[in-house]
Every structure is written in C-alpha cells, then in structure tokens.
Amino acid sequence: MVGYGVAAIAFAALAILLAVSWEGRTRGLGLVLAAALTALWTAGLALFTWSETAPTGLLFVGETVTTGAWLGVLSSLSRSAGMPRRLGQLALLAWAGLLVAGSAAIIGRAAWARGLVMTGGLGLALVGLVLLEQMYRNSNNSGRWVLRYLYFG
Questions:
Q1: H-helix or E-strand containing 53?
Q2: CA distances to 35, 91, 128 from 136, in Å
Q3: What is the mean pLDDT of each run of 10 residues along the chain (153 residues)?
Q4: DSSP 66-92
Q5: Which of 102, 32, 85, 92 shows the shortest CA–CA distance to 67?
C-alpha cells in the first residue's frame, strides 16, 4: 500500500510539473494526461490494497487505460524520432485489441478472451519496450540525449 501511495504522489507531482511547464503542444498534453492517469490509477491501487477488495473488471480497465495512455505518448514521440508511423499504429492497434478482448471477457464472460487478457498485459509491456528500442535506434545522438530520461525510466 505504501508503495502505491508513493507512486501516486510521485506521478501526481510529475503531472503537476508537466502541466505547469506545458507549452501547448499535443505531445505535452498526452504526457500530462498519461502521468495524471497513472497517478489516479496508483492511488486507486493503494485504496484497493488498503480495503483488500479489488473488482477484477476495474483492475483490467485501469491497467489497460494507463498502458494505452503511455503507448500513445510513445507512439506520438516515435513519429518525431523518425520511426515509421506503422509501428506506433500497430502498438495502438494491439492495445485496442486487448481492450476489446478484455471487455468481451468481462461483459460476456467469453472464455476465448480470458487467455488473451492474461497474456495481453505482458504483450503490451513488450510492445512498449520495442517502441522504446526503436526510438533509441532511429534517433540521432542529439535526439538520444534529449530523450535520455525517457529511456532510463
């Protein structure tokens, strides 16, 4: 619970710092929203841990929405790094597919979607790593220097 609380505070501070220094660009708004969503989600996880109850559907939706927000940020940044648009679009398509399969598993209790949902979170994490790796490979030295904190994070 303490770890989730600390993460919520850290992401809230990041969202506030990003919002204060935001210059009106679309990429900046995506980063602010992703940090704010993650702050809300980790605060919710702290609450779920404290109360020892967590609805499965809400856990899935929260994880998928925050992952989608960060994939959207990476997809937006990858376009400016000189990467092919298709890679970012494929990442968002994989996220949308997981969201649809998860919704089918939750709402319709579809057995076919349960296995996909179980492995989908790991798959989206790997998609995020591939996007980061491709951004690093396709950036020039000055671009790598600018994005070094993103790579470390």
A1: none
A2: 22, 16, 12
A3: 91 92 81 93 90 78 86 80 74 82 73 69 83 80 76 73
A4: HHHHHHHHHHHHHHHTT--HHHHHHHH
A5: 92
Q: What is the pLDDT of residue 152?
A: 76
Residue recorded with tokens 């989908």: 120
Radius of gyration from C-alpha coordinates of the chain: 17
Closest to 121 (Cα-Cα) out of 147, 152, 95, 93: 95
Dihedral of the alpha carbons of 1, 73, 56, 97, in degrees to the nearest 10? -160
Distance (Å, whole) CA 63 – CA 42? 10
Q: State the burial class of residue 65 (Cβ atoms within 10 Å of its Cβ: 0-12, 13-18, 19+).
A: middle
Cβ contacts of residue 2 below 8 Å, gap of 6+?
A: none
What's the predicted TM-score (pTM) here? 0.80
pLDDT for 39 equals: 95
Q: Quick one: pLDDT at residue 122?
A: 82
